[in-house]
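WARN no homologs supplied; continuing
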Amino acid sequence: MCNGCVQKEYPDRGNTCLENGSYLMNYRCCASCHQRDFVLISNKTTEDEDGEEIITYDHVCKNCDHIVARHEYTFSVVDEYQEYTMLCMLCGKAEDSISVLPDDPRQSAPLF
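OK structure emitted
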């Protein structure tokens, strides 16, 4: 992973968790070849450990194959919620939780 390739390391992305793709707004240029071109995805793996899906891949420079950042995305179901997390020097860090029920109990207003 290369902090010279990004504008800000691990930017806070709120609840925006990317399963694939790249956050190019945070890409400065390749610190190795100094080109600002597309970032490719390589070495993508998907693992399933105890009901948690983990997707990892490398962001690499299109021109010189320099590794810009390592991306990790996780998905799991905990109780009645789908939990998502993302951690990547380029794309940032984020967490999200969505109810699997039609009406999210956390969003309902108290009756009294």
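The first strand starts at residue 39 and ends at 49.
OK
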